Amino acid sequence: MLEGRLPSAEGSLALLASYAVQSELGDYSPDDHPEGYLNHYRFAPSQSVDFPKRVAELHAMHRGQTPAEAEYNFLDHAKRLDMYGVELYPAKDGKDLPIGIGVNSYGMVIFHEGKKINEFAWATIMKISFKKKSFYVQIKCGDQNRSTTKLKCSKVSVGERSCKHKDRREGAVKPN
User: Which Pfam families does this entry report, sorted A to Z (predicted)?
Assistant: First the structure.
């Protein structure tokens, strides 16, 4: 969170931070945690002035959670965020608009202006290929239909990562 590798709405970041505080500091108590007790903590690269106060409010709601439960809840919420586990690469779509191509364990995710606009599961990706600076992903759309999506990006960055993910996935399910 602090490094900014999990961009999301401030509310989600505050909830994640509150679980981290619960795990580290334990149950909220007015005696142990006076007003402003989180003001010196940095949770996100560009947190607002009111962010620590919001985290403190949420921290108080986690009373009774053990550190293990708070850490579980942190991970349970984090895994639902669009950018969780995604390594993002800059690219351009077929209309030359800037996009981000994300690669994760699920497959490939396309982002435009920070919002997820499409995703392709590894199971639906039939072929990944390159031609000059264009990167092509052939998707299985139905029983016999295939669709090819053209993306412009660095061959080295996303292409190699995508191929490595796909190779690992295929290696994991190959019959003996």
Answer: FERM_C (PF09380), FERM_M (PF00373)
Cα–Cα distance, 152 to 123 (Å, whole number): 22
* Same-domain status, 169 and 91: yes
Q: Residues 164, 171: contact at Cβ < 8 Å?
A: no
102 with 149, same domain: the answer is yes
pLDDT digit string (tens) for 21-80?
Answer: 999 999 999 999 999 999 999 998 888 999 999 999 999 999 999 999 999 999 999 999
Rounded to whole angstroms, the Cα distance separating 122 from 175 reads 17
Q: Is the pLDDT of residue 163 over 80?
A: no
**Cβ neighbours of 44 (radius 10 Å):** 20
